[in-house]
Every structure is written in structure tokens, then in C-alpha cells.
Fold this sequence. Notes:
Layout: H1 5-8, E1 30-37, H2 48-54, E2 61-70, E3 74-79, E4 89-93, H3 94-97, H4 104-111, E5 112-117, H5 128-164, H6 166-181, H7 184-195, H8 199-209, H9 211-225, H10 229-236, H11 241-249, H12 254-278, H13 289-296, H14 306-333
Antiparallel strand pairs: 1-2, 1-5, 2-3, 3-4
Organism: Mesonia mobilis
Keywords: Cell membrane, Membrane, Transmembrane, Transmembrane helix, Transport
Subcellular location: Cell membrane
Amino acid sequence: xxxxxxxxxxxxxxxxxxxxxxxxxxxxxxxxxxxxxxxxxxxxxxxxxxxxxxxxxxxxxxxxxxxxxxxxxxxxxxxxxxxxxxxxxxxxxxxxxxxxxxxxxxxxxxxxxxxxxxxxxxxxxxxxxxxxxxxxxxxxxxxxxxxxxxxxxxxxxxxxxxxxxxxxxxxxxxxxxxxxxxxxxxxxxxxxxxxxxxxxxxxxxxxxxxxxxxxxxxxxxxxxxxxxxxxxxxxxxxxxxxxxxxxxxxxxxxxxxxxxxxxxxxxxxxxxxxxxxxxxxxxxxxxxxxxxxxxxxxxxxxxxxxxxxxxxxxxxxxxxxxxxxxxxxxxxxxxxx
Length: 337
């Protein structure tokens, strides 16, 4: 779903950012007639693959309408309005506005569509379902990148500390304990502010704070494995330290690391959501589940709680899924506590 988000989402524009202010904050299942006005500006041509991964560059205008009527040369529409408020009447010259269409039937077929917003619209009138689908990419990306960074740093330092011991072990353990003593969220915020707000900065910041647990586990495992007979035999054969660590020790300590990685994946998603809620995560118009909650949490007391509950349930479901995967891997790999 994350890879094919723009193929599934009703809104194919970049970041699913097509706004319709007259229909903001509508409930799930809302339907409206939408008039698309083509633009004279030529949108940048993208390949099919680029459109599938990054969305289309939409240069036209979409207008929600209540009614429309064709005359010989014009299209008369009444813009969307609710209750006693009357919509604005607008007139468009057929030949000038729709140069590629030859008849009223063709215009109605191509440019006037009935749209259904399955999850409703946000406070800017954007399709909430499309924003949710594209937002999956942020959560999954932060998990993969943060876990990768934490594994590289944690496995390296943990293996060195556990294998060599002595002063090297004491120095690395001092670094681990100092890093461990700093609250994760505060450390992430500090790194993010130092690197600047943005997409990749959050990835690096979260990854740099999650290596400590990996390093401690790897150190403990390596201290036990290095006493095994096959490691002694490798030393007797004259193998170097690097080869012994990479070829003989690391493969035998991977089982608990897989379980920790699943838990870290879930933790990274929660941290990113918290940062986006605070406004220092993924920046607008890029959709993020945490920023969606931030934008709409005030709507909980305004009678439209679904705007904040839907992304909240999505975060909860994704985190729970990875925690269940971690528990299942622990049972399958028979990791001893």
C-alpha cells in the first residue's frame, strides 16, 4: 500500500495536497459534484513510474459545485454551499475554458465528476483517505532507516566492546550509559534542531538514538559466544579479529537482534509521530499521521473527533502489528530472556 499509494489514493496529486476549502472537515462518506478547470500552464511531464511513486503535478483547479447548466456558449455553475447560504454563481466560456472538448456532453463526461470522500476531508478540504495512504510512507520509512542506522552503529560498537573487553569495553560502555541516561525524545529534538527540520533529519536523529539497546545486547551475546570452541579454533587457524567477528560471531547473535529490531521499528514510528505532532517532523505539505493529529486534535471537542481518531488508530494498528511480529519472532527463534 505504501509503494502504490498514489495508484490507490483517489487524489493523485503530489502529497495528496489538492485543497477544496468549501468542503473542509466533512464526515466519512461525503459526496459532492466536482468541476475540474484545466489550466493553460503546461504541467511538467513525468514518466508513469515517477507518477506512481511521487504523484502527478496537478496544475488545474477543482471546484465543488451544487448545480450546473449548459447554454450554447457557456457553462453556468453554482458553487458548493450548505444550509441557508447561497453558493456563488460562476460562468465559464466553453471554447476558452475547455478548448480540448468539442461538446457539452464531452465536457460533462471529462470535467464534471461525482466524488466520494470515503474518510471525509481534513480542515483544508483535502481527501483524508489519500493523505492517510501517502502518510504510510513516512511511518514505514522512518522505521526502516532508523532500524538500519541503529543496527550498524549498535552492532559495531557492541561487537568491539564484547570481543576485545578491557579499556575498550569500559570506554564504549561509558558512552552507552551516557547516551542511555538522556531521554530519547529530548535527544531526538536536540539532534533535529541541530540538523534542521525536515524529512531526512528526523530519520538520522531517530536512528542515532536507538543504537544503545542494540549495542548492549550485542555486547552481552558476543562475550558469551567468543568463549565457544569454534572461535578458539578460528584463532588457532590464524584468522584475524575482523573475520572472526563478522564470519563466526555476528551470525550467531542475530536471533535476539531481529526481535529488538521489530520493537525498535515500532518505537521509531511512535517517536516520529510525536515529533510531527510537535511540528519538528515531516514538514507540510508532506502528509504524516502525527501532523494530522496535530492539525485536528482540537476538532475532538468540536464534534468531529474522527479527524484525529482515524490517524491515531492507524498509528496504534501499525505499532501493534510490529510488536506482534516481534513477539512471534521471539517465539520462532527461541530467544532466551
